[in-house]
């Protein structure tokens, strides 16, 4: 295997490694984030039920002469819980908009870009390889002609041109 082929194989392996291993892992991470978000949303729904229960208990306790102090305490607990809940909902919104959505969008763009770049690289590589094969074939024909010719120097300039083109494609 030539050095050029080794470099080509390594380059393609980098692209394929990103597309086949890293990006799927990142997709899985986004999916887990969505599950986490869904679980926290479920906690929020349960917390609202808890908040409503605290308020209702506070109202019942406030109506009673002997439980007024307990009712005030329950209202204070409900207020603290409401504030925590509002903060959690704000964090959830940020988590969704700033992290999950952005990451998912960038991942999709990255996959499209890498796929297109890999195809372009492979196409360019194929084109250069085909050009090199053509140049090698022309060079072989010219050498055969010059060996069988009475004037071998006649083909010398053309052979130099083909060799120059061939070296240019190896770069």
Automatic annotation (TrEMBL):
Residues annotated as domain IMD: 1-171
Which stretches does UniProt call biased (Basic residues)? Answer: 142-153
Which cellular component appears as one GO term in the record? nucleoplasm
**What processes in GO biological process is this protein linked to?**
actin crosslink formation; actin filament bundle assembly; plasma membrane organization; positive regulation of actin filament polymerization
Q: Where is this region: Disordered?
A: 142-171
Record field: compositional bias (Polar residues): 161-171
Looking up InterPro entries in the UniProt record yields: AH/BAR_dom_sf, I-BAR_dom, IRSp53/IRTKS/Pinkbar
A Pfam family assignment: IMD
Q: Which PANTHER family match?
A: BRAIN-SPECIFIC ANGIOGENESIS INHIBITOR 1-ASSOCIATED PROTEIN 2
Q: What is this protein called?
A: IMD domain-containing protein
Upper lineage is: Eukaryota, Metazoa, Chordata, Craniata, Vertebrata
Q: Identify the coding gene.
A: zgc:158689
């Amino acid at each position: 295997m030539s050095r050029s082929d080794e470099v080509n194989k390594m380059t393609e392996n980098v692209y394929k490694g990103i597309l086949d291993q890293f990006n799927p892992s990142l997709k899985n991470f986004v999916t887990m984030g969505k599950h986490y978000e869904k679980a926290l949303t479920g906690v929020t729904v349960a917390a609202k039920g808890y908040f409503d229960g605290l308020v209702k208990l506070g109202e019942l306790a406030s109506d009673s002469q002997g439980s007024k102090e307990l009712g005030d305490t329950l209202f204070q607990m409900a207020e603290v819980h409401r504030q925590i809940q509002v903060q959690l909902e704000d964090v959830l919104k940020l988590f969704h908009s700033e992290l999950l959505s952005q990451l998912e969008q960038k991942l999709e763009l990255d996959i499209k870009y890498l796929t297109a770049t890999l195809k372009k690289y492979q196409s360019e590589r194929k084109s250069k390889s085909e050009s090199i094969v053509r140049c090698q074939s022309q060079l072989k024909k010219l050498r055969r002609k010059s060996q069988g010719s009475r004037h071998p120097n006649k083909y010398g300039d053309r052979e130099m041109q083909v060799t120059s083109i061939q070296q240019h494609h190896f770069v």
